[in-house]
Amino acid sequence: MFDWSKRFFALPHESKMLAPFPDSRTHHRGYTFPGREKLPDLGDSAEIPLPSVKESFDIGREDDDLMPNIWPPDHILPGFKESCLAFYWKCHEVEKNILRALALGFGLEEEWLVKHHRMPDNDLRLQHYPSISLESVLTNKVARISNHTDYATLTVLFQDNVGGLEVEDPNEPGRYMAVPPIPNSIIVNAADFLRRWSNDTIRSPMHGVRVPQDAVMKDGMLPDRYSIPYFCAADFSTVVDVIPGTWSADYPKKYEPNSVGQYVLKRLVDGY
């Protein structure tokens, strides 16, 4: 899949723009050129988000009437569509196994969370961080991607061997720790809706991409970086209350029942 990603982003800009991200900010599909995505809304955080330098391509299920896929013409990159869709559904199987493990951890029936993720209303994103100067990152002129939280249930992340991913220390706000690539592994990242859903039992960590610890550079330039996040959301049509067992008389519910679709779509609009 990384090979397909590299081949897509190596296409001329004009070819990639044959599958453009729509002007509608709720249609989260197709190609996004560098600078199109807005800076994240960090709420009351004192951090000042930096301009993010990356390009991406978003894919969903083919039968999604709300957000149909936007593909480049077949002759541009033959086999690209089929490979993306096959990988999308493999990621969905991984997602379901993670949800089963979470449900057991909450003391629930194994399929409890899977039942809320039937559709699936998910987003597979190919991401490319072009080579940029080390100086521009160290002087906080830009970031490969600014610090942010994800917003659905969870994210399954594949990263190449370049590195640079950092996550905020949950015990020391403002301190970021490197998340180095581990061969043949994935990263599972809790997102904001899961935080609400679990009544803050599981937190969604702030994270971003900056300078890798062992960056191999040429002429002061950071190398290209590729990653593939799979953003997992509960079915848009459902309204969920906080997970049973995460609240009590001594620890009451912090959140009202919420529509998955309304919450996720609002976050999508805020990001573009």
Automatic annotation (TrEMBL):
Q: Which UniProt keywords apply?
A: Dioxygenase, Iron, Metal-binding, Oxidoreductase
Write one Gene Ontology MF term. Answer: dioxygenase activity
Is RNA-binding among the key words of this record? no
- Fetch the InterPro entries from UniProt: DIOX_N (IPR026992), IPNS-like_FE2OG_OXY (IPR044861), IPNS-like_sf (IPR027443), Iron_ascorbate_oxido_reductase (IPR050231), Oxoglu/Fe-dep_dioxygenase_dom (IPR005123)
The answer on whether this UniProt entry bears the keyword Oxidoreductase reads yes
Domain Fe2OG dioxygenase per the UniProt entry, residue ranges: 120-234
Which Pfam family is one of those matched by this entry? DIOX_N
Q: Which family does it belong to?
A: Belongs to the iron/ascorbate-dependent oxidoreductase family.
Q: Give the protein's recorded name.
A: Thymine dioxygenase
